[in-house]
Amino acid sequence: MIKTDILIIGAGPCGLFTVFEAGLLKLKCHLIDVLPQVGGQLSEIYPKKPIYDIPGFPSILAGDLVDNLMEQIKPFNPSFTLGEQASEIKKLNDGSFEVISNKGTKIHTKVIAIAGGLGSFEPRKPPIDGLLQFEDLGVDYMVKDPEKYRNKRLLIAGGGDSALDWTIELSDIADHITMIHRRNSFRGALDSVDKVMELSKAGKIDLITEAQAIGVKGKSHLEAIEIKTKENVYWLDVDHFIPLFGLSPKLGPIADWGLSITRSAIDVNTLDYSTNVDGIYAIGDINNYEGKLKLILCGFHEATLMVQSAFKRVYPDQKLSFKYTTVSGVNGFN
Fold this sequence. Notes:
This protein is 21% helix and 29% strand. With 334 residues, the protein is of the alpha/beta class. The chain has two domains: 2-121 and 247-314, FAD/NAD(P)-binding domain (3-Layer(bba) Sandwich); 125-243, FAD/NAD(P)-binding domain (3-Layer(bba) Sandwich).
């Protein structure tokens, strides 16, 4: 049985920063995540993608942000259960919780902080017969390591930020990129759209709109994709097909924990980001309140306020005195 003060469900950026804020208050944290590594979507989906809205960093790669957060929380020695999903919860007579993972790991905690991002998520897959047999054999729904595509022929499908950004990023790595989109207009940032258009005009990529992939073929590895346009249907030889149509978020077992939920997000009180279940909080993209913005920096703010409330629950007889980290001897490292 693992024992902790705060169980953080989700080891993404908000979950990791919670460890820092909790550590300043001498609260011990354990994190559980269904993914096999820390970082959440930053590590799983776009580790090499730059992020521009983290204070103090004009630009930082998602993977580097995760590395920095891990370095920041190292003094507080958090423990982790990775590759497992928090599936069952029991509230005990003293108000604490026992959480059991899908693999039987038991965790006793006084506070639960749900920082699960969008929840468990699955990529939206195009309805193409035979596509599944080439998953990880030429068909990828996310880009984890750009070097995998060096000197390869790629077909990227999609019209949002991910498709645009990775087309730009991989244009100097791949041997050739064809980008297709079902419409003439794109949903992504205008600057990214302009860059893709410039790459197309310069002949660095082939951009085909009002087109979609309708077939796949290959032996032990993907070899070609069938493409349908307004004028034609033809086969395109490729090494990799990367359909980037976004993710379908699912709350998973959390949906059965008696929490108040609105549109697949957990309702919280913005005083401390507590839920309707005493002792359970929700921070980051997974929560819902009026004026909510799904930004990492907002999740950091929510984590900061949440641990103040968590302290009072863990140590009801102790007085909490807020101090700045710049005060000597109150930086959590002593």
